[in-house]
Known about the structure:
Layout: E1 4-7, E2 13-16, E3 19-20, H1 26-36, E4 43-44, H2 45-53, H3 61-76, E5 86-89, E6 92-95, H4 103-119, H5 123-135, H6 148-174, H7 178-191, H8 196-208, H9 212-230, H10 236-246, H11 294-305, E7 316-321, H12 328-338, E8 347-351, H13 362-372, H14 384-395, E9 401-407, H15 410-414, E10 424-429, E11 440-443, H16 449-460, H17 469-478, H18 483-495, H19 501-509, H20 514-517, E12 519-520, E13 523-524, H21 525-534, H22 538-546, H23 557-564, H24 568-580, E14 585-588, E15 591-593, H25 596-609, H26 612-637, H27 643-647, H28 660-682, H29 691-702, H30 718-735, H31 738-754, H32 758-771, H33 780-792, H34 798-815, H35 818-834, H36 838-855, H37 858-874, H38 878-895, H39 898-915, H40 918-935, H41 938-961
Parallel strand pairs: 7-10, 7-11, 8-9, 9-10
Antiparallel strand pairs: 1-2, 2-3, 4-6, 5-6, 12-13, 14-15
Amino acid sequence: MDGLRISVLGPLRAWRADRELDIGPAQQRAVLAALALRGGRVALVQELLDDIWGWDPPASAAVALRNHVSRLRTVLELDPRAPTVLVSVAGGYALRLDEAALDLSRCGRFSTDAVRAAEAGDPERAVRLLNEALALRNGTPLAGVPGKYAERERSRITEVKLILLEKRLGLELQLGRHADIAAELSALADEHPVREGLRALQMLALYRCGRQGDALAGYSKTRRFLSEELGIEPGPDLARLHQRILQSDPELAQPFEAAPTTAQGVPHEEGTPAPIWISPAQLPPDAPDFTGRHETVAHLRRILAGASSQPEMAATVCVVHGMGGVGKTTVAVHAAHAAREHFPDGQLYVDLRGASRDPANPDAVQQSFLLALGVSPRNIPADSVERTALYRSRLAGRRLLLLLDNAVNGKQVLSLLPGTAGCAALVTSRTPMACLPVTSRTGLEPFREDEALALLERIAGPERLPKEPEAARLLVRACGLLPLAVRIAASRLAARPRWTISSLVTRLSDSSRTLDELQAGGLAVEAAFELGYDSLSSAEARAFRLLAIPEIAELSPGSAAALLDTSEDAAETVLESLATAGLLESFDPGRYRYHDLLRLFARHRTVKSDPAPARKAALSRLARFYLAGMSAALRTIRPDSLLAAALDPDFPGAPRFADRAKAQEWVISELPAILGVAVQIAHHPTRAISADDARDLGRMLVLLMPFTMPFSDLYVAWGSMVSLGQVLLDEAEEDDDAPAIVNACAVLAIAHACIGQHEQARGFARRGYLTTEPDDRVFRHRLAYVRGTVAALDPDSLDEAVTHFTDAAALCQVLGEARFEAQCFLGLATTHLARKEPGLALRYSREAFTLSQAAGGALDRVLALRRLGQALHDLGRHADAVEHYTEALVVCDAHDLPNQRAHTMLGLARTHFAQGHFAEARTSSNEALPMLALLGDAAGQRLATELLQSIEAREGLVQGAH
């Protein structure tokens, strides 16, 4: 660390060697304090925001945090560009310091060594070590650090100081130094009147100094304060000591160790021996086939191992949470066994049955723990407060590990947690237990595929996977990578050596039987899910069922509100409840999803519990919500468009967007769900599409078409649009619904054209155009544009394309739709490029660019710049083409347009190649190719690959010439 030191036991300060560092303003100091106090553990960004700004941080807090971290790195790091002290780790930050670099850690080491010295019968050395620990404290802890987190830590560190003082003074008393410490004890006992341990030590010291009256006066002070301020009497230990001083008990004058003592250092009443200590070993057996989770187990073991090495800290509490079947207990038991050596005083275990309808009573658990620790049943108080005090006193000074499995909430485990350092509690729960003060919180997710395959191999046998590697992968995927499901599937294979892996995959592929197949012996995935489902309220259970109906990957609060027919706030509340219960996953703010098997479980439940009309209505509301969102996006991005009003369903709770960027972001994020719902409604296996649904889907798909608004950087799988459009057209024809026929024909025309079926595309485009009325102000010019687009994609119909685009542009100008007029000009530019007329293409591209600058969005500008680049390339003006392509890339990067960026890079590569700049052409092609593959653009991938081959061939010719 090159002499780096940090102090938190007084004013927050930092040094490198002998030079004090400037650690910045108050808020930046708060960041450093929050990281330093975690002792090297990772602090998630959200935890730091809460620490510094509280529960409601400003919108700029995350940016401010990054800036504070960056400035701290310039102070603390030798090379801020390669940080080794303040490092970024897994969505947060950690301060990596040697033990000697932080005064809090040095204080902890002294304290630990002191405890061990006292246990080894060397109180003199223990006193010296405690004095060294106390000497590190220099004024008010964290002085100058703002915030409630700093206040809490300040109080905690101050409390620890008092504990160390009490330990040191107790040892001094044991060594017969009562005269030396009497004055110090009197001052401390008066300053902290509620600490009866300090008052007991003061009374003993004064009594041994021959000051019986002063000792009794000290008791009266405490009793008066507790009565007047808190309405309570002193505890039984202090009251007994008072009586013994009144009676001049001769044993009190003996050295302190002559009498058995309580955890507070007060002698026991004569004739009542201290209970013996029993070291329990209650951990369940470790799984012999434990597989994977290496990072998680290593993290837990590291945290648990540190519990006994930092006595100035609070007790260590680790929470492991996740959905049912994800392997929380297995991981916790394995980690507990791995850390056993650090807890020589024993290990306690309890199943708190938190996921059942009959969770364990913490009072009964506490009693069973006391019995396991050697306390006689008759000595266990009936009163819960007294019992908790006895329980924590019994654990004080020990190194004991508690495994509290399957907790329902923080309230259930709070009274079971140790009160002092040295002990540790490992808690598992389906909920993250956000309100419980913890040292570490670990959320378990399903296995990675390699982990799932490893478990399958260990249980089913190593000889089976090499024979069917692909089937093995399909099997673990069918299990949703859920550890419990993989274990059950593997166990079934192990019990049936003649079964092939493929045969089990086939059985699991039938969704009506999947959950039935995933049970073996006493294990069943469905039973694990039922525990969580049964704990839900009726409203939460209904939401859990209905939200699983749509075949979409993710839900937002808005889409959930549509499904549940409620407000967005109410929907978000229930989504959070389900996520907290481990029945939904939420990895990003405002986005929720089911595990595949949980979705299947929920769908089985909705078929049993919710009538078919209710399920259909939920899906229809969701489709209408997406239609409303698309219409709102159109109004935001193209305010001059006449289409939004024509297609707006006036849906309550429709999305609203502050600007074009937000509208584009919404459409991109929701596009998979929009298409998924459309396919689900149109191709439902048991229910024909209704006229209302067909009408809504037709409008929704029209809004995705490029002739409507290229508002987002989308790449649509046009093949699926053909079958969707045909279903919508059939329903529209049956109902003789002319607007719906227009919509369906428009979708079919574009879809057929994009997959190269030009004759069908022309037919649908012509039919849609002729179905519109001559004076139609919304659809007629759009269908003219569709006819132009269809013709432009057919090399034999380019003249026809020019006519249709020209007609559409003229109508746009009359109607005042400048953005759509620019789009028509781009169509003309594209057509003239195909006709080898780059001069005309350049003219129309410039007109489109001018209109997009005045009224368009980022995508309009990129499209215009791309066409300008193509036209200039074809005119041989390669340097100008490169300039326009480069400008387009700047816009793509600024507005996150990956599709357009890929095609712009492809155009740039083509121009570099024409200039003979082969290295630049190769770089651009190589950058475009994976982006095009990710987008599924086969034609673009082919062009990029052909260009790379041409570059290689040309370079070979050049090298051969030399």
